[in-house]
Amino acid sequence: MCRPVAIDPARAGTRTSLAATFLLATALLFHQGVRAAEPSEPQVQVTVAEALMELRTGPGRGYPIYYVAERGETVTVLKRRTSWFKVRTARGKDGWVGIEQMRAAVMADGVSASLREAVLADFETQTLEVGFAAGQFDGDPIVSFRAGYHFVEGLAGELSLSQISGAYSGSQLLFGSLLVEHPIGARFAPFLGIGGGYFRNRNRATLVGEIDTKSSTMLGARAGMRVYLTRNFLVRADYSRYLALTSEDQNDRFDEVQLGFSFFF
Questions:
Q1: Higher-scoring residue by pLDDT: 105, 225
Q2: pTM of the model
Q3: Where in this chain does the record put each SH3b domain (predicted)?
Q4: What architecture is domain 44-120?
Q5: CB-based contacts of 77: which residues, under 8 Å, 6+ apart?
Q6: What is 175-191 written as a DSSP string?
Q7: Residue 152 pLDDT
Q8: Strand pairing partners for 80?
Q9: Listed residue (260, 261, 216, 264) closest to 242, CA to CA
Q10: Helix residue ranges, H only, 62-173
């Protein structure tokens, strides 16, 4: 005849706690093992090609430079945010680098074209730019609104609408142009452009008698400089030469100088 075995409640509770702890630890180890087995996002390493690579504390030119990597150093790309890359140097310094310096790095000798595409794929895309400018149009005040679209890197289309206020007349100029830009470093970008548009001039009746409105087709060329102040804000200076195609024997020429600002979207 079997004798009943007495179970100590305290020992039973201890065994239950140990079993629960064991199961919890096993589950945590399994979870960590699964996470470790998951493939991590590949990190790209590039070599600094220019004399210096400036690392900023944040993704924008408004953030201060706190570390400089020298030519030949290797940096690891951690992530991207718009046109800025967060990188880590071999010495463990983390910072943000603009696309201009990163483009020079990934295009250095020994870096494959596929690697360049992997790093810059998100940034060689269309960009919308809008801005305002003011200046002189053949000696008269002019105010302009501009909107541009960057088709590819270095090539953009632009449409501008201008109001010219002369002493004896008021004029409007609608002008479309194709711009070619060539960045110099991280901040300056000179450009050239050609285009055509529509010009309408209206005399002031109170000064010249009856209202007289003349319209003509305009051809023009321009040159200028963009100066990038932050990631999305720039100052721009333009010089333009226009040729008005009139029905008369002699065509009219106009010079324009403007200074303004633009935003990127």
A1: 225
A2: 0.55
A3: 42-105
A4: Roll (2.30)
A5: 43, 44, 45, 46, 85, 86, 87, 102, 119
A6: EEEEEEE--BTTTEEEE
A7: 75
A8: 85
A9: 216
A10: 99-106, 113-120
86 or 246, higher pLDDT:
86
Look up tokens 């226009």; give the residue: 242
Which pLDDT tens digit goes with each residue over 192-251? 999 999 999 887 665 445 556 688 899 999 999 988 776 578 899 999 999 988 766 667
Residue whose C-alpha is closest to residue 150's, from 107, 183, 180, 109: 180
% helix, strand, coil for the chain, step of 5 = 20, 55, 30
Domain boundaries, the chain: 44-120, 127-264
What contacts 168, CB < 8 A, 6 or more positions away?
203, 204, 207, 208
167 pLDDT exceeds 90?
Answer: no
Out of 3.40.50.720, 2.60.120.10, 2.40.50.140, 2.40.160.20, the CATH code matching 127-264 is 2.40.160.20
